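Now for our specimen.

. . .
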Amino acid sequence: MTGAKHGTGEESVTLDLLKRKMDEFAKERDWEKFHSPRNLLLALVGEVGELSEIFQWKGEVPKGLPDWKEEEKTHLGEELSDVLLYLIRLSDICGIDLEKAALRKIELNALKYPANPCKGSSDNGGD
């Protein structure tokens, strides 16, 4: 995926664009030496923990988060972004094309969990 322009003149957000921005960000700060796969994975796990804390005491939450305050949704967006950005950076440092890997995984899950036998079952989560 490349950063194509759309009608508003803004660049589309793609994994490739985010990968390049994360690379530039690290280079500008001379942080590349810290971005080993292990360090990035541990940072990712920490961010997943922060994301989990947001939901920790809320019980089941309806789709769309209708009862959440805007500040809570903004905070959730920030933590989701942290997870996404570390995942993108980790895949880049490991030399994994995350777009292709994700599409392949969806195809593998479709074979592993055919639509008809699993329809309506909770045993179709993919791993």
